[in-house]
Automatic annotation (TrEMBL):
Transmembrane segments: none annotated. Keywords: Isomerase, Metal-binding, Zinc. This is Phosphohexomutase. The lineage of its organism: Bacteria, Pseudomonadati, Bacteroidota, Flavobacteriia, Flavobacteriales. Pfam families: MPI_cupin_dom, PMI_typeI_cat. Binds 1 zinc ion per subunit. Its cofactor is Zn(2+). It comes from Flavobacterium noncentrifugens. The active site is at 200.
Length: 322
């Protein structure tokens, strides 16, 4: 069956956002047409935003179509068993021309109860950072629902949140419940659970082109927030031509591969693998064929492709579920 499937790329699903810009075009060569494109959804099974294959003989079919047709071969036996025919992760590139709203995501239990959805544990890899760029992540000191609500009412929530200066190559892991915001001047690769549930708790009193402020979810967030301090920034090694684990959690494992030459890959068929090219150019040799990728490309390796090789000079993120 492995001869049927091949490395998949998908049409980017582009999202205009009040905080978006044009770097997804200038920096990552995405086909954006507006000046406020904030997100390129690279690989998505979110209802209403399901990715469509962009290459090969299955071009034009959706991710849902091919999972339906080849569940074990695409997802892997373990993932098919655990998640049925749903793709459990969502991959994006983001361009923050302005600060994103301060927000929080609910955990699996709360998201299931309120929205019949997965929660949203996520991670960020910083691809590009302007001078003085920063992110907001977690509380400076242990907080409480009362302090949080008071700070929202008095519009000084930034005073109790942690601000971290950020540079290219930084990695942040954001378990559900972590209050956070991507700051202006950052291009981010984001890996997360398949969920689009976000509680927006402060939006800098911004107004859109029509003079409207965006909806806030201050009260919904109270039960979702982790009020303890959190250590979200991850350090990682950079040994050439092999995976260096950055984040290993129940929802996904992400490694950094500094590729300069060739890296042989052997998988067990239990799970798909996704590669995000965050710098440079590389190729995948699989079943006697070569597939080429550049910075900003995302590729899904079906679980049935168990032996292949990466080659080139690039920085690549490798993601799977262990």
């Amino acid at each position: 069956m492995s001869t049927t499937l091949y490395p998949f790329q998908f049409e980017p699903i582009l999202k205009d956002r009040i905080w978006g810009g044009e770097k997804l075009k200038t920096f990552l060569n995405k086909p954006i047409t507006s000046k406020i494109t904030g997100e390129s959804w690279e690989l998505s099974d979110v209802e209403g935003d399901v990715s469509v294959i962009a290459n090969g003989y299955l071009k034009g079919k959706s991710l849902a179509d091919i999972i339906n047709e080849f569940p074990d071969e695409l997802l892997g036996t373990k993932i098919h068993n655990d998640f049925g025919k749903k793709f459990p992760l969502l991959f994006k590139y983001l361009d923050a021309r302005e600060d994103l709203s301060i927000q929080v995501h609910p955990n699996d239990e709360l998201a299931k109860k309120r929205h019949n959805s997965f929660g949203k544990t996520e991670m960020w890899y910083v691809m590009q950072a302007d001078e003085n760029a920063r992110i907001i992540v977690g509380f400076k000191e242990k907080s409480s629902p009362e302090e949080y609500l008071k700070s929202i009412k008095e519009k000084n929530i930034l005073s109790i949140l942690n601000s971290v200066a950020t540079k290219q190559g930084d990695v942040f892991f954001l378990p559900t419940g972590t209050v956070h915001a991507i700051g202006a001047g950052l291009v981010i690769a984001e890996i997360q659970q398949t969920s689009d549930i976000t509680y927006r708790i402060y939006d800098f009193d911004r107004k859109d082109a029509n003079g409207n402020t965006r909806e806030l979810h201050t009260d919904l967030a109270v039960e979702a927030i982790n009020y303890n301090t959190t250590d979200t920034q991850k350090q990682y090694s950079k040994t050439q031509n092999q995976p260096n684990v950055m984040v290993d959690c129940p929802y996904f494992t992400t490694s950094f591969i500094p590729l300069d030459g060739k890296s042989e890959v052997v998988k067990d068929g239990n799970c798909f693998t996704v590669y995000m090219c965050v710098d440079g150019n590389f190729s995948i040799e699989s079943d006697g064929e070569t597939f080429d990728y550049k910075k900003g490309d995302t590729v899904l390796m079906p679980a049935a492709l168990k032996a292949f090789a990466l080659s080139g000079k690039a920085s690549v993120l490798e993601i799977y579920i262990s």
